[in-house]
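Mods, move this if it's the wrong board.
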Amino acid sequence: MKSKELLLGVFAGLLVCFSATADAQTKANYNVTNLQEIGPENIGGRVSSLLMDGETIYAGTALGGLYKKTAANALDKWRFVPCYLSDGSQLTLPITTMAKNDAGVIFVGTGESGYVIGNDTAAMASRGRGLWKLQNETFTQLVDPADNGDFYFINEISLYESGSIHRQFAATENGLYTTTDDWATCTKIFDGVVRDLEMVPTRKILYFTTPGAIYRISNVENETNVQAPVCITANEPLFAQAGGNIKIAVAPSDARYFYALVFTTEGTFEGVYLSRDQQTWLKLNTSSVKPFSTLRNGENCGTIMVDAVDPKTIYVGGETIWTGRGFVENSIYQWTNNSYSEASLNMGDYMSYVYNNPIAVHSGIKQILQNGESFFVATNGGVYHSTSLNYFENISYGLNAVPVVDFAICPDGSLIMGATDLASPFLASRSGSNDAEVNHSANILFTGSGGPCAASRFQRALPTEARGLMVSAEDLQFGRTYKDYSDYTQTQTWTTGEGFLSNVPSIGYTRPSLLLWETMNNTEIKDSLTVIIDTLGVVIRGDERIQLNKKDSMDNAGRIIDSVFNKLPFTIQAGDKMVFSHPSFFGYPFEYTFTEDFVLTSSNMKIRVKSPYHSRVMLTSKYRSGAKNIMGTVLMAWNPMDFRRVWSSEEHGMGNYSSTIEWAKLFIVNCTEGYDIRHVAMSRDGDAAYAAVSDSANNAYFILRTRGLNSIELSDTNNAVGQYFNFLSPNCQMIKDTLKFNGNKLFGRPVTSMSFDMRDGKDCMVVTFGGDDNSEPNVVMFNNASQESYTAQAKSVADAKIPVYSAMVEYTTGEVYVGTEEGVFVASESTFNGTPSWETYGEFKGVPVTAIHQQIDTLQSIALLTHNGINEENNVFVKTKFPYAMYFGTYGRGIFMDKKYVTDTSNTVVDPDFLGVREVVSTGKTTISIYPNPATSYTTLDINLAESGNTMVRIYDMSGKIVSTENLGRVEAGNYKKQINCQNLRKGVYLINVVCGKATTTSKLVIR
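Not the wrong board. Structure tokens:
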């Protein structure tokens, strides 16, 4: 039990960390100038322990360190209490238990038992860091688990103080330890799993529990008694028969009332028991009392507390909170259900007022703390407060302990993430350096425990907002949405269940996988669409712009001309250009160049064109095959952001495949034989797909690959196309194989991520591995990863001893970032291609970095005027916010952003001029791109000239002074590349201006 009484000892310091309270509003910079903590800030996370110190309440989080706030002020913001090591670096402590002594010293135990270490699962934890104390804002390590491995998992700590006697106890997964010299030395007095401690100072008694039994030390002042614990449940077979965890509590007002919360070996709730003589036990509940579920059982949560005043009133928490009261001696208690979990409110739909519901308390309850008339509850979804245990408020503002599984970046800078136990939080676009606030229940999307997610690079701002998102959760939960209304609670924009997935899958993964791949420059994929020439359209013919419906317009010679549509037919000539909206991507504009003459008439206004945009989504699911086999599969759909298409069994049965979203089985494995699909990936060009498969029973892992996706003819019916992709179809046109490393198809460590270098011309995949078997690498690079002939090289970080969860190749420099449990490491492109020289980045040590992504788009805000029925409609699309920003998702500290390489920090994502625009802004003009940017020594100027002509390049500093001029002479229309020597330019921001004939364009260059 986590008690409000004295529980911890005073320990001798082994390692000192200097701590200072970090205001969560201003944030610490974590030794990286541009690194910024961005939230989410008010949905909490896995809180394991609460402690009162006067007017201050402390919250120890299982993954994200220590926080504190003023208890009486519900609006007060939690503030992070960092732990700084002696070398100035920061360590995030995975806290399991806390308490303080009479001198106000707070003692901290770390390391959750019952959770997986070193692998990416739905029940993952950070590696324990031993015993600590916090005194005068300074953390001191008392027991280092490197010296005693039993202290990797500390379940409880307890303190007895009386006069000159100071004895401390620590319950670990491997035994019960005690010390009388502040942990300079310690003795194991019990060998085996010890889960809970309960000290009764007035009687000098310590109780502790092991699975299936309760023990007592009768006099903690007597060394002989301390060394000889006695089992007090030996004569009560029900405890041993249950065999599971036991939580205990003694009434503060009457120590005769001894309560036990008992579970079975499977973690199932067995019952609540009372003993007043520690010999006979009375069960206090009936089967109708259900504070636990199969999801929230005694393996991962559970607490029992006795009321501070009434020894016959107890509080039990697990999935929900129940109060039991005794009115008749030797009879069962009367029970009241005080709270409802997110799973029981509207079937777990977070968007239906879960977070603001006064009867809602998140599941995964670890502790109930009573302080006067107030109750505080530690849950997997933050901290709740109540004065009566009938109405609750979530007080997690500032408590950013969110365990991020994955996240995706929207064009406007918004983020969608999947978080364990917390569904899919949505962070609205930030303004400047302000933090994103999740200030509406609608911003907690979907249901269950969130998994991988995705965001489309196409986003419309007007006339209605359309931001394409995909989310996932455990047990076959996938969904897509595009908002289009005031928030995401509007079901009109959601596609879920069979309407999205079809009727193929029937079983879900506990931890699903999902990946969205999109391109805006399709030249290989055989995808086409039919577009209609809108009467509002513009034909671009050289310098001439012919507006099709404009009357009394003037041609280049100054002659008055009538509307084209009043004198059809009209010939659109080969080489003419028009801008169309793409119906599969929210109407996003694209420019099409006519390859032959097209005669426009009132009955001939449609044309079939090659689609410049294409997208695919891959996700994992399972289905039954025959009576016995369960198959795991990777399903793929093409152009999934076309919300006009949903799955329909009726339409599919009638053969109307063109109107439905269809799925192909890219990969299939037999789960009945022990195989499991963990991760998916797609090559930069979209031609190859990958599936990481595990056979954990045999400690064998491998990567399947299929190639040739871009060669499939997508103009066939969706059903036929699905067969071309299908792994087992006789019509499959894919090339299938298994990747090898050092000639072997099998890895000895589980794959945790597969990430591609997204730079043009690159075909490199970085694969990361979990576990702690350093006989095999934790990072491997596959070069030419989508080709028949490829190479694989080990690129291990930290001597391969630590699990690595994520990787990213930085877009402008080629630097490689990897996220581990010991922080983020970075290697330059040059060293990574040889022998990596890894350097630490930021202050992430102690919290797994599970996802690293970068915003690599640099789209500008554009607009297109079209018809919606008979009405004219101005469609405005957002520009990319913070291009090249890097984001780091942590499993316990939320998301961080680094704007190190961002060249445009503007907060405006829609050009104000477009709010009244009446015609399209054509993309048919001279454009330039610069890479790398920022640059150091050299950079490349990539010029796309709309027409031939004499070309001049000028470089200006920000004062407007010309610092460089170069005449390139006559350059033919098309692509032209020019290398620029930057070594003579000082560090700073410059403007590069290109003039060709009458065309001019400018772009920004940063020199570092």
